[in-house]
Amino acid sequence: MTGHHRLEVSDLTVSYNRVPALHHIEFATSCGQCVGLMGPNGAGKTTLLKTLAGLLTPETGSIFFHGRKVSRANTDFAYLPQRENVDWDFPLTVRGLVEMGRYLRVGWARRFRKSDDEAVQSAIDQMRLGDLEKRQISALSGGQQQRAFLARSLAQEAHVFLLDEPFTGLDEPAREGLSNTLRELAATGKLIIASHHDLGTAEALFSEVLFLNGELIASGSTGVAFTKENIDRTYGTLAFSGKKSA
Amino acid sequence: MSDWLEPFRHDFMLRALYGCAIIGFLNGFLGAFIVLRRLALMADALSHSLLPGLAVGVLLFGIAPMGLFVGALAAALFVTVGSQIISRNSRIKEDTSLGILYTVAFSIGVILLNKVPSPISLHHYLFGNILGLSNDDLWMNYGIALFVIPTVAALQRPLLLCLFDPTVAKSQGVRVAGLNYLLMGMLVLTMISTLQAVGVVLALGLLIAPAATVYLLSDSVNKMFWVGGVLGALGSCLGLLISYWFDLESGPCIVLFLGSLFLLAYLFGPRYGILSKFLRRRHFHDESLERWAPVGLAKLAEPPVEEPRVEETSKQLPETPPKLEMPRVDQLLAEPTADPTSELIPETRSGLVPLDVSSQPESLSSTEFAPEDPSPTDSKSKPAT
Fewer CB within 10 Å, N or C, chain A? Predict the structure, then answer.
């Protein structure tokens, strides 16, 4: 993995109104990986994703990407919300959605340059949405909707893609298609971090896993960290306590 | 024909038409924001809560635009911030607290405006009086439009991000809270200019009807803003002319006309209209029938497929199932040689209990099979204590 940008998280604690949701998280990974965030409901998966995206301010700790401290929203990180949180009836075409990814680079008032149009087109082509670019976003299938959001992140030229439960609500072929797309993106040097709750499919989907239950239980390559013991510790204990849940 | 052109020969009507064009455009333009953020209730609350602010403004400063604006802004802030404080500190949700506060504010406004000596009657505050528009009012409306429209146009991209997904907008560096406050301020300004056209009661219709109409016709946020503005302006002017031609009240006529346009879009919109949806479904149904009906008919015409597995299994089965011979309970009891360890007769601490065969059906009917609503005369159906 030499030459790939590294993401290093150390001593990260995040609270909502002084109530901690994540305790002293430490892990490191690098671009080119497809990382699955595993844990029960309320384990802090979305909190970790939002903190990495710069949407939440941590109480303690730091996030370093490519040697630089990440403190607020920037173009290196792209956050893809849960599908149920998106207003699919919004009057927006696929192309309009992908163009949104350029706003932070172009600025609020400047016109799109040729390079911006090319970046948008390239993202659309890479996600195989050329025939659908004029479609309103609700007229897409679940898998196509995820690809449209990935295309927006590509147009943003983000390095780290933070996906919140991307496989939820997708049928088997769509899940397979999205899984291949994520692997392709990882192969091009992107770092994919996706929260996921289905233990049955995690091994096939991710190259690395990160078990979370309020605190970090285990992290590492799927072959090493995806063990029964880690799964039991993640899903069988109460957050922070280490005690067995009822 | 000359009768139709008569309104254009009166100065007051020309002023009213200019006013309608500006106010209609402003409302149609800003309405996109309200429709897409689903803030219709908030906008309605704002327009109603302006009334006590206007009353206090008139009381303190007379009919001066700045006085009206300060009063209206204070009242709007009182209602919106107040509703948030109530919902955060109690189990009451924000829509309920907003509903209570704005109706209370509206009531205070009605009482105050009846008591405050004002050249404008309460009826005009409630339903508008576009025909009474003065040159000063017209200039105030121009001023508001010149501030609101270029500001919103300049903020188009962050606004689009914010409207679509505030979380992602924040992740891209948009100051979502600041943008919302700015838009709320512009909404209050727009409401003040709207009062003269349609009044506080009907302001919401003028604000959201054009944007909602374009929402049913287009998949572009830009069009919702700009075409919504044009539709608002044209609709307001035509509504005003209709009110003149047919001698009707102007404010309700404007809202009625815009509402009719919405209804047309709802019924006949090419993409999202009810009729086109119905036709598309029919078309799909016909297409589906055309494609699959021959397949289904061909399948019906085929001889039934023989299923060897069923045949094989039926061959394995004997013609008539063997009769199972089970001992009857009374026979078992009659036999004195019955083994006491037999599982058929349970053993208790006090030894073997003879099974009372005659009591079995009764005890079953009185417990497990008792009817839900037993008759009071049926003593057996009483639950066991």
Answer: C
